[in-house]
Structure formats: structure tokens, C-alpha cells
Amino acid sequence: MTTIPRAIPTPKKTPAPSPIGSPDLSRAEFLGTEQAFDWFSIPQGFCAFPSLPLHLDLSPEERSEILIFFHPDLQGLKRGIQLYLRSLPDLSQARAKLTEAWTPSTFEPLTHLGPQLCSLRHALVQTYNWFPHSIGVLDSLALCAFALNRWEEGLFHLRKSIDLCQNPAESLLILANALKTEGKEVEFRSYQEKGLRLQRRTAIRKNLSTVGEHVLWDSPEVCELVRGVIQVGANVGDEVQAFSKIGIPHQCYFEALPSAWEQLQKTLESVDHERFQVLSFPIALGNRVGQLPFFEGQHSGNSSFLDLAPSRSKSQEGNVHKRTIQVPVETLDHMVEQGKIPLENYNLLFLDVQGYEHEVIKGARKSLPCIDFIVLEVSYTEIYEGNPLSQETRSFLEGLGFQRYKEAPGHYPEQGDAIYIRKGSKVAKDLRINLYS
Prior knowledge:
Rossmann fold, 17% strand
């Protein structure tokens, strides 16, 4: 880029920081209409300022007086205000308030700072002219516009920022609340829904990176659509922490093995019961109500209603049953009919029942129209006597209106995990996938 030389004398010594008050914009020359900008890297980060001779030797203190700093996020505006407009309150605090509840009065404390805000706005406009794709500059301009009561201008800059940003949850929520103030209810609801979803997705992606490997944890786009989970075969609660980390508000657990049930209760004590509604039942689910013999495994997670297959692979030789006990069995449909489970709060059925998946689903036929996702373990060889294989499970669930969305191998080559989604459901449309073929 060609620079325009300017007669700016090199300071003999570093001047003292400017006192609180209006900045000397004539010196910074931010208001010129034909200025070129260069980029300089200094300890505080990147900055933009009017084209100065590249040989000009400025100290960091000198630079801090004549530059406005910015960064892709709004923290750059905070630094710019601290370094350049020292009398201006922290707009990043106003931004934080706006994401919670928009009120025009948020900016009332800034009304007496009109000249400083105007100066900041002019400087940012000049920067925007040269860098129109900087999200940080656009967000900063929007906040300045709102503070100056320039509502349409603020909305314009926020919309443009959202178009450029890949994850504009915060900007979407600010825009939504601004539109609500303007009485634009339809646009408000649309932007608020998008903002809240993106906000949750960001949190989910961050938390999923710490919960281990599973086909569900590898599908944040599914996790964000889950409003409640019913886990059958919860064992000691290995998934409880993950369900809480990704913010699933309604959680229901079934575990029939007494020793595992006791440990599950201890695990559930760590859940924030003010934030999450948790139900748990010391029973099994199947296709009929009654009592059934249950094979307790040497490892509690391998317990099943099905006995182990003699022909199971060598990797499963350590999977042994140590005794048989009687456990109570219910059906999901019967539990719902009795009012024990408010089904409207749940849309994910999570099964870990060691080959008994089909029987659990048969006992939930009436409830399936309310279920959007079924997550279950699938087998590629016979581990338990008569356990269905992956292709059989696929045919079975397709016959009930569910289509396979994703399947991934598990820790052992004989097993994997799969996600099935109800065809024609709203979540299928939200995921923009064709589940009709």
C-alpha cells in the first residue's frame, strides 16, 4: 500500500500520558477522508492508525495516545477505550448487559460523553473504510451508535457483523433485544432463537471436548437439540457428568442392578438439582411388566437379561456372569401412563442394555412419537445369546420410523454406538438432513 508522507515531528522524549478528557484528534488525524492506514504490531496487539512515515520512532506510550486498538472480539474496544479515551466507560460491560436484557437506559450514563463517543465513532468509521470485514470494528461501531441514540445505524452494523461472523451468538442476542425495543417482535423472536442456540452450541462444543469418546459426544449438533434424556441401563452413572456438562435440563435414569444403583445415587448427588431435574428408578425396562432373571456380570456394566454366547470372541472372554438375580421390570409406556415420567420433557432415549435394546423399545411403542433420538449400542457379532446385530437393529428401527444418522465403532471391534433420528421430526429438519429415503 502506498503511504502518504505527513509532516509529523519525531518527539524528543516520551510525553506524559494525557489527562482524563477529550482526546486530541487533530494530532491523531483520524478525521481525514483520504487517509491510508498501515498495520503495526506492538505489545498490546494489533492497531490501525493514519499513515505515518515508517521510520518514525514512537514509544508505546506515544502510540497509545494516537492509536485506537481493536481485536476480532470486543475486548479490543475495551483496550482502545482504556488507552485512548480514558474518560469513556467500559462499553464491553454495556454489551454484557445487553445480551441479558436490552434497555435503552443501558447507555444513559454515557449521554454526557457525546463528544468522546463521536470522536471514537469517527475513528472507527475511518478504520472501517479500510477494513470493512473486521467484526471487531463493526461491533464497536454498533455499540457506539446505540450509545449515541443512532438506532438504525447500530442495527445495520450488527447485522453486517453477524453476516461475517461464524459464531455470532452474542451479537445475535444484542440485535434481538434491540429489535424488541423497536417493537419488531417477529424479528426479535427469530434472532433470539438463533442466538440462544448458537450460545448453547458454543458451550456444548467446549464441554464435549472433556467428556471422552462416544458417537453422541462427537455430534454436538444433536446434543444441542436434546431437551431431556431417558437412560436405560445407567449403571453407576458414567454418563451423568457428560449429560450435565452439555446442559440437558431433564434427566431420567433406570438401573436394575442393586449394587450399581447404590453407586448411581452417589453419582447423582453431584448434580446441580436446582439447574437439572433428575429422576431415577431402581428397575429395568423391557416389553412387559413383572419380574425377570438378570445375569449379574463380574463387571457390573456387562450385566444383561441375556446370557453370554459361548462363541463370543477372545476379546470378550473376560466378560463373565457371576450370578443370576430377580429384578423388577416395567415398560416405558406403563411408566408414562402412571404419570411417573412427564414424557413431554424428554426426546432422547439412551440405551445401554447389553443386547436387550429391542425389548426395551417394544415396551415404548406408544411413547416413540415423542422421542426424536434413540442412541444405543450395536453389535457386529454375537456377544450375548440372541443379541440382534447392527443390520437387524437398523431394519427394526426403520420399521418404527427411525433412520440411522450416525454409527461409529466402539472400544471393542465387536460393538459400536449409533444415533437414530425419527423421520419427519422437527429435529430432522433442524439438522437439514434427508431422512425420508
